[in-house]
Amino acid sequence: MLRLEARPEPSRAMVMLTPIIAVVATMIAGGILFAFLGNNPFTAIRIIFWDPLFNDMVASYTRPQLLVKAAPLILMAIGLSFGFRANVWNIGAEGQFIMGAVIGGGTALALYPLESPLVFPLIIIMGGLGGFLWAMIPAILKIRFNANEILVSLMLVYVAAQFLAAMVTGPMKSPVGMGFPVSRNFNEYQSAFNAELLSNTGLHFGVLVMMAVVVLGYIFLTRHIFGFQIRVSGQSARASKFAGVNPHTTVALCLGISGALAGLAGLFEVTGPAGKLSTNFPLGYGFTAIIVAFLGRLHPVGILLAGLLMALTYIGGELAQFQMSIPAAAIQVFQGMLLFFLLGVDILVNFRLRWDTKSKEAH
Amino acid sequence: MDLSSISPVTLIVSLMAASTPILLAALGELVVEKSGVLNLGVEGMMIIGAVCGFIAAVTTGSPWLGFLFGAICGAAVSMIFAVLTQYLMANQVASGLGLTMFGLGLAALLGHSYTGINPPSFSQIHIPVLSDLPVVGRIVFGHDPMIYFSLALTFGIWYFLTRTRGGLVLRAVGESHDAAHALGYKVIRIRMLAIAFGGACAGLGGAYLSLVRVPQWAEGMTAGAGWIALAIVVFASWKPGRAIIGAYLFGGVTVLQLNLQAAGLAISPAYLSMTPYLATIIVLVIMASDKKRQSLNAPASLGKTFFAST
Amino acid sequence: MTPLLHLSGLTKAYPGVVANDNVGFEIAPGEVHALLGENGAGKSTLVKMIYGLVRPDSGEMRLHGQPFAPHEPRAARAAGVAMVFQHFSLFEALSVAENIALGMDDAPETDALSDEIRSVSKKYGLTLDPDRMVGDLSAGERQRVEIVRCLLQNPKLLVMDEPTSVLTPQEVDVLFETLRRLRDEGTSILYISHKLEEIRTICDNATILRLGKVVGTCVPSEETPRTMAEMMVGTELKSPTKRPYKPGRVLLEVKNLQLPSKDPFGTSLRDVSFSLHAGEVLGVAGVAGNGQDELLLALSGEELTDTAAITLKGATIGSKGPNHRRLQGLLAAPEERLGHAAAPDMSLTENALLTGHARQRLTNKGFVKWQATQNFARAIIQKFDVRTPGASHAAKSLSGGNLQKFVIGREIMQRPDVLVVNQPTWGVDASAAAFIREALLELAEQGAGVLVISQDLDELMEISDTFAVLAEGRLSRVRSASGVTIEEIGLLMGGTEVDHAAA
């Protein structure tokens, strides 16, 4: 009988290996899913994972997309990872992403058509602030009233989406949009547009910020006492209090940082790749970022890799949708399976499997 | 705006219909949490129930089979969560979130070709004379059978939890899995059953949504109902009777804001659509601020991973 | 006469350790049999096999001469084996009657059960209200719940695991009265303990376990505690030598400390006052759940109070957090090693940082000096004889005794002016316990004030200079430890201040 045996130490090899096992298992399970949908599984997997990077027919378009899609995911996932390590569960990054875009983008729309080099820095600050303040709502309710931050932050996603709808049908509606619920297009506004910095790379300003955040996050987590305190808080609330960590500060910081980063991601997205505010603006990046954070083992470097992989599944998914008419939802299923497999094989980090011929345990 | 178009009787009747999916899901989650497990996948199980119930009802022409199949499928997907958290000891928060995301995706995939179809109708019961009484007739005797079922289920769960040995064992497992294990109770088996029950209830709630409440299939149609159900469990302090109050309160807010939208209240409908979510937050805050009572009623092992170390 | 229970050749191995190695002995009907051994000697594993929680790898058990191999506790109960646990078997948020029903396989209806509970508790002198919430009961009352639960099933064999560790001396007397009555009715009792005086008082025969093996049997009434202890430990014991106590200046002064408990089943501190001097070891006795945790939290700074309630070397610190207090010289080591004093999955280096970073200057502008931290961890490991492959190993991989040495060592190495410890040797093997006590005495000798909160009276008698009792959140007057009698302490533990005349 197969039996679990606790390891004396978490296995470092397995920490690295389990995400890879999970990805492979997902490819297999995903292949089966595609076969059920009546597609050739091998072709589907190739289109999703190989073609966007190496197929010359499409790669010139898809390769730059990689950074474009990965940047918001990584930016948000790094913010979330701090909280997840500390048992502060911000699952409303999607809402903070929207609010960053609405507040930052709204500032830009208010300033239009003022051209000034100060506009872009200002709207970046406003975007980050929008996400930060939106995340401080669950933080304050948690600290002051002990309200569950999971449910509050999640409810605020729906509120934010409705707020966006109210804005694009009201004050932020484009005067030249022929009545559609969309804002003015940001690429018509030089000072606020988050343009591609090097052509055909997908590299925009948000990607640079993302890279800086990866580096800072790494230093913060491994070298700074605050990163240590966050890790202690997640392991044991009592031990962290004993270490002198104020749990309220941890809640406020974790939610605040993740909110600000999500807000930035939203701002860069709306002023660049998305180009305008509309009710179709939220694409669920805030939820996918949760998967990215776990897949990256809540570690900045892991998250960087996981974000790129997840971006690949988005781009490859679009290709597959286009070429094989695999429904868009299949990619969402694919991402969900990835998280399941990862959580499932995670047990190998702390336990080893033993084939036991004479199992006598009652359970 | 014309408020006279809002009739109190119609309001109450539609309030009950609007509340029923949330009530069903909340009752299931209540049992799950009483066993010490926090399953954040309610939204995912609900939408799976919605799509599967819809498909079954459309295919067979029987709404009853739709409900049944919705419940079965809700329970089936809950088993992913159950295996991950109970046998593979995965984090319950992450696994629940995963279930929600997976469920939303899978439902969209399955329901792809079912948008815009009308399901077979599921009508209100009609008891001669009684149902025709003014006011009382429609409020008490004029609903569809699932509404009566949800009320009966509330009573059944209350009875099970407080009056039966099975309920006592379930509560004990949720209170302290180590103590229950030491007494020889099969913690994991009991929790697996509770999770399956929770999945079935969420699936049933979802099926009600797509077969009666809307009645249509649309991607993402649960729109946070599963999360609101989770909030209602907190609101109810883990007591079935109070779950009804919670669910009806939210149903009331939802129906009222829809009626106000229809009546043409002079503010953006988007602001009105926020109200059920804002109400949820307000209620969470009110309930949570009473820390002592919360910690007394909340199952002490909630969300903790059990590993038999003997 | 056939023995009631006959065990032979029982062996149970876990990865890396043989918990029971060829264990065998017999218990006769109506016999009180002691199972004696240190922590980690294999007593719990043996008991779990008898109760069906664990299955032996090999060996045989016979009950009434019939083969007995319970595969789950239900089967053991059906065969007439009942067990009173040391920990983890009651549900705080459930009522007494519900708790009892859970331990029975064919529990009657609630009302009938409540009546039965009342009649059994009356018969054996164990007062108990079936409708009360277990979380509101004292430790002694909780044990009564367990005992009544067992008695309702008319057991042939009653297994008691460390039953007196949570009781006041007076409650112990009541318990022994009950046990004698049961024995006279023909019930056998397997009594697990490491308290030698008790075993001499109540047990007919004893089996001694060491490192999983039976190392001896004896008739306790014919032995002295010392001879039994030496069989148990395997070497000759030496007690630490006590130095003469000369009180120095006041280091820590606590005045009218109030702390409402945040735990619904916790105990609030009420009007606690005492002062601690340089060179003093102040022992605080009391039964578990009388405010010990809360007292430690209030002193360590994890719970804040009125700023004037606590004065350290002349400065009021009641409203200051743990790290401020550490910098000023007040350090603490809580009872729960894993999850409070140490983070289970973190390395010893990281755990050294946990309380050491402020006072040991292990950070620079918030950035951790990992090399210095590792050196600090290694110094603790070396000086306090912590057995571990290295500082990079996780706290949870250490045995209880070794982790406790690390935790106490971590604080002592920071040269505190005042050290507060709660249950410093709970669940620790005898040699580590002796080491820790020695280290605490040495710290006091160097001029620090040491406050030891403990439920182990023998320990407190051994190392304290002064002595007080915590009962229901109130602290008794502090008196000299010499000349206090066990009876006096017992009354204090029950909440009676005995020395009104003297005070």
The counted number of beta strands of chain B is 0
Low-confidence stretches of chain B are: none
- Write down the oligomeric state: heterotrimer
Give the biggest beta sheet of chain C. 7 strands, mixed
Proportion in helices of chain C: 25-40%
Overall pLDDT confidence of chain C: 87
Q: Quickly give the structural class of chain C.
A: alpha/beta
Our Rg estimate of chain B from Cα atoms comes to 20 Å
Unreliable spans of chain C: 498-503
**How many domain modules of chain C?**
2
Global structural class of chain B: mainly alpha
CATH architecture of the largest domain in chain C: 3-Layer(aba) Sandwich
- For the secondary structure, the number of strands of chain C is 23
Return the CATH topology of the largest domain in chain C.
Answer: Rossmann fold
Major sheet size, sense and barrel closure of chain B: none
Helix count, DSSP H or I runs of 4 or more residues of chain B: 13
Hey, roughly how much beta strand do the residues of chain C contain? 15-25%
Q: Estimate the global geometry of chain B from the Cα principal axes.
A: globular
Write down the Rg of chain C.
Answer: 24 Å
TL;DR?
The complex is a heterotrimer of chains A (363), B (310) and C (503). By secondary structure, chain B is mainly α.
